[in-house]
Specification:
single chain, alpha/beta, Rossmann fold, Helicase, Ruva Protein, domain 3, 3 domains, five-stranded parallel beta sheet, three-stranded antiparallel beta sheet, binds adenosine-5'-triphosphate, binds magnesium ion
């Protein structure tokens, strides 16, 4: 096919028609800081309490803000800081792209307007530069209080070669030095888990105190309120209430994630035909799930894909929605043995937790009687959606096995109970 002026004009027209339902689409962009925050009063009050204690001379050195994805942590913290500018200076650093502890230090330096350092110059030098730069900012902005927000702080703990605990220690030390010089500073970390729950030295834990603000996942009515507010501004057409309710119940059922709810509504708007319906929301949900699964699986290392393949295969062949870690491990070793040596049981358990954190799996505990409790997992999306992203050829073979198994089962039903042929159909279930 050849690209022509007409073709471009046609594509443009198609896109413009698609976007015609939107008045201001940016209101559905989850990257933009909203001008209005819905709810979250208790969390805001707790956060403010900690930050404002600076003024009373009581220092909370580290405030750990934590909660699931899309629960409004970054939005609320930024909003609070921006509304305290008469009192504080603040810098908001998103550490997501940093791969190492030193990388984090450099990102902070860059955000403070300082030149980046080479890792050979060392972490101590980096923290010293941070300290002098913060002093400079506070003098320049004539502020006595400074809040350093470190968003996506979890990345610090994924650098297993360095010592994340030591980095926290150095930051606390820097705060003390600044305080001695008359500059009051508070660090707010934002992460998915509570900071105290990470592997930190006791000396660090005791120094950093236990100020935390937890953000629970949004309920259906919270998400509905956020969507109603945005839909009014974002769409030219009015979105029926039952459609908004449907979007919020899909988004709150297991994750309570406002970002996903906004993405869902925006995608439904993009694919609708002039008027948004529940069917558009369903199609949008499928598109988004497919994109998300592709994103998780395509970037996953080989063993993680094999663990995902194991649980997917159990879901399809054995029709098990929940599978115990031991069954998944057995299936995983069977799959991996064709190409590689299997990882240990413990390591595979960690990979399952990783898949759960990425949002692909859900888990629950189950009783093993006298042997305590075990963990079971299930896919949060249909295995038919996950399988092809792992490996289309492999998935086609799983589906073929499933068809053969179903045929054998049907055949078994027709055979007399005593027929020796029955055992052949059972053999398939162990594939
Ligand atoms: N209370 C709220 N009122 C209005 N909009 C909100 C609210 N909470 C979240 N949002 C919207 O949802 C999006 C996601 O929120 P946010 O980025 O703050 O989540 P998060 O908890 O930081 O998630 P993550 O852990 O993935 O970084 C934001 O862009 C924001 O537009
Ligand atoms: Mg965030």
């Amino acid at each position: 096919m050849e690209l022509s002026k007409k073709k471009i004009a046609d594509i443009r027209k198609k896109i413009e028609q698609k976007n015609s339902v939107f008045a201001k689409k940016r209101y559905l962009d989850s990257m933009i800081l909203p001008s209005k925050i819905i709810g979250r009063e208790a969390e805001t009050e707790k956060l403010l309490n900690n930050i404002l204690s600076l003024r009373d001379g009581f220092v909370v050195p580290l405030v750990s803000v934590y909660g699931r994805s899309g629960s409004g942590k970054s939005t609320v913290v930024k909003f609070v800081c921006e509304n305290l500018l008469d009192l504080i200076s603040f810098r908001f650093v998103n550490l997501r792209k940093a791969k190492t502890v030193f990388g984090c230090a450099n990102m902070i330096l860059g955000n403070l307007g300082e030149e980046l350092l080479s890792s050979a110059q060392g972490l101590n030098k980096a923290v010293d530069c941070m300290q002098s730069q913060i002093e400079k900012i506070m003098k320049h902005e004539r502020k006595k209080y400074f809040v350093l927000v470190l968003d996506e702080y979890d990345v610090v703990f994924s650098d297993t070669r360095s010592n994340p605990s030591d980095f926290v220690y150095k930051l606390l030390q820097m705060e003390e030095n600044l305080r001695e010089n008359g500059f009051w500073i508070c660090i707010v970390t934002i992460s998915n888990n509570m900071l105290q729950g990470y592997d930190l030295d006791d000396r660090v834990k005791s120094r950093m105190g236990s100020a935390d603000v937890s953000f629970l996942p949004y309920s259906k009515s919270d998400i509905l309120a956020i969507l109603q507010d945005r839909a009014k501004k974002a769409f030219r057409v009015s979105v029926p209430k039952d459609v908004l309710e449907y979007c919020s119940s899909l988004s709150s059922s297991d994750h309570g994630d406002a970002r996903r709810a906004l993405d869902l509504l925006r995608t439904a708007g993009e694919i609708c035909n002039g008027k948004i319906t529940k069917d558009d929301v369903d199609s949008a949900q499928r598109n988004l799930q497919k994109d998300r699964v592709d994103e998780i699986v395509s970037s996953a290392p080989h063993h993680l894909r094999c663990v995902a393949a194991a649980i997917c295969s159990l879901a399809i062949i054995n029709q098990e929605s929940w599978s115990a870690t031991s069954s998944i491990y057995k299936k995983y070793t069977h799959i991996i043995s064709k190409t590689d040596n299997p990882l240990s049981y413990r390591r595979v358990s960690d990979l399952l937790v990783e898949l759960e954190n990425s949002g692909l799996l859900a888990s629950r505990a189950y009783s093993r009687g006298r042997n305590g409790y075990g963990k079971e997992y299930k896919l949060k999306v249909s295995p038919e959606l996950v399988g092809p992203s792992i490996d289309s050829e492999w998935f086609a073979s799983v589906m073929n096995k499933k068809i053969s198994l179903d045929r054998a089962k049907n055949l078994e039903k027709l055979l007399p109970r005593t027929s020796p042929l029955r055992k052949y159909s059972r053999m398939f279930s162990d594939l």
